[in-house]
Amino acid sequence: MSTATVRPVSRGSRTPGSPQPPLPATSRVSRWLDAASLSRVAFLLAATALTLGPVLWTVSTSLRPVSESLGATPSLLPTSLDFGSYRDVFTQVDMVLLILNSVLVTAACAIGQMVTAAMAGYVFAKVEFRGRGALFAIILATMMVPMQVTIVPVFMLIRGMGLSDTLLALILPAIPTAFGTFLMRQYFLGLPGELAEAAEIDGAGPWRTFFSVFAPLATPGMAIVGILAFNYHWNEFFRPLIMTISEQNFTLPLGLVSLQGNMGTGSVATVLAGVVISMIPALAVFVFGQRTLREGLTAGSHR
Q: Rounded to an integer, what distance in angstroms lies between the CA atom of residue 151 and that of residue 96?
C-alpha cells in the first residue's frame, strides 16, 4: 500500500479559493491614523484659508493702484505694487493724532483693568467676608448685559461729571471688568493659601501680602487681562462713536471711517491701507505676548 506524501504548507501560501486572511491589527490602525491625519490636515487648511484669506485680500488691495481698486471685480493679486494709498491715508486724516489717542486710551484701559481685576480677584479668592458669593454672582451677571443697554446710563453719568467728549469718557467706564475679575479670581484660587498665612506670621498686612506675595505670582494672569483688553479696546468703535464728538478726540477705528468719503465714494485701497496700519500694533502685541498668553491660559492645568 502506497503512502501519500504530505507536503508542508508554508505560512504565507494559501490554496486557491480560500478566503483572504484579515489584515493585522497594526495595519488597520495605521490606515485609520493616516485617514484621520489627512482629514485633520484638510480641516486645518480650510480653517487657515478662511482666517487668512480676508487678511491677505486686505493687504493686497491696499497695495493696488487707486485706479485698479475702483473696479467692480478686482483681481486677486495686484498687477503692480503701489504704496500711494498709504501716503493718502496720512494726507486725508491726522493719522498721528488718531494713533496717539488710541494708544493713550488703550494703554490706560489695559493697565486699569490689570490693576482692578487683580485686586478684585484677590479679594474674592482669598478674603472672607459676608455676602462674597452673592456679590461675585452679581458681577458675573453683568457679563450677560449688552453694552447697548448700559451705554445711555453711562453717557448720562459721564455728562453729569463734565467729561463728555473727552478721552476720560472712554477710559473710566472701561476700567472695571467682570471677565477680568473672574479670570483673576480663578488664578488666585490656584495659589496656595499658606503663602498668606506665612506673610501674616511675618507681620505683613493685607495690602503688603497682596503686593509683595500674590501680585508677583499673578503676573501671567494679569498679562492675559492686559493683552485681551488691549486687543478689544484698540478695535473698539461703538463707545467712541457715542462718547466723542470732536475729531481731536477720535480714536483710530473712528477716524478711519472718514476715509470712505461722502456716500462711500472714497478709494477702497486707501481705506484698506488705513485698516492695515491699524492692525500692526495689535499684531505686534499678540506676537510678543503670545508666549505669556499661552502660559497664563495653561497655568491652571499644571497645578
A: 28
